[in-house]
Specification:
Number of strands: 10
Helix content: 25-40%
Distance between the termini: 25 Å
Largest sheet: 5 strands, mixed
Radius of gyration: 20 Å
Oligomer: single chain
Number of helices: 10
Structural class: alpha+beta
Length: 310
Amino acid sequence: MLPRALHCTNCGQVPLDHWTGLKCPKPPMPLGWIIGITKDRLEDTDHAGGQITATRLLTCPRQTLIEDFVRPLAEDPDFGLVFDPTRFNSARFGTAVHADIAANTPGGYKEIRFPMEGQEPTVLDVGAGVTCAVAGRIDFISPDTITVEDYKTHSETAHKFKYNAKAGKDAELRVQYSIYKALVEASVPGIKIEKGRVWHGAMTSAKHPAPPWFDREVEFMPLVQCGEIRPYGSKYKVREIIRMYQWALGEIGKIEAPMYSAQWYGVFTEIIRGVPMVGETMFGGEKCLTYCGPAQEFCFYTAERRMRVA
């Protein structure tokens, strides 16, 4: 992601060096925390260039494509995305937890990226004639290479819900793990992943009904069944989301104007208009309004919608 500006809770819209240049008179969070969030998001190479990952199959394609391809235009200072690091505070806690666990866990294989070095992306068949090259990063594979693990961090309220719901049977989590299983087995001859385990963690009070961390087994499902899942109550199936990505990326690849020029974005905007607003059908509509992030303004512009004002 390459935004045109940042948003500061106390200063409004600010230039990209607002915090790194020590220009903010009243940072909304500790300075190092803000800069860490910003670097983590803006320098993310795992989620860039329209790359399709296991988790991106479970979210809105418009959001992904806008964040990956919309950049500032020198001739139009109002064009581009605005990044607010406070919207990513919870995600940053998760990133820090992942790094700490990886640094201190003995044995096993940690933070494994697929495709592995020197390999082509694995193409998965999710049924109905839909195939897709998928990338991914797995938190942990056990030393005996039969178990994959992932770590999820939550608020106290969400943690309690996950604990009471016996989290691990979520359809979205099963899709993610089933793709991880397929990636590992296709990339490393002889490995057979037999188990999936998710760890849920939160900063809990002494009287909280759930322990600070608990694990649940995740059941795998056939990839064809993965293609049938409608993530987070979406109107669209995973395989339909894949088709949206493939159509849009194919059309983007046909744009003849110089990449990231005003003419290029004219065509790009029309392509985005052709991609359904999947997010407004997720989480009862809250994905689009509450959880979209930097892409929302551009997305609403292409859809001729008004932004919701708090």
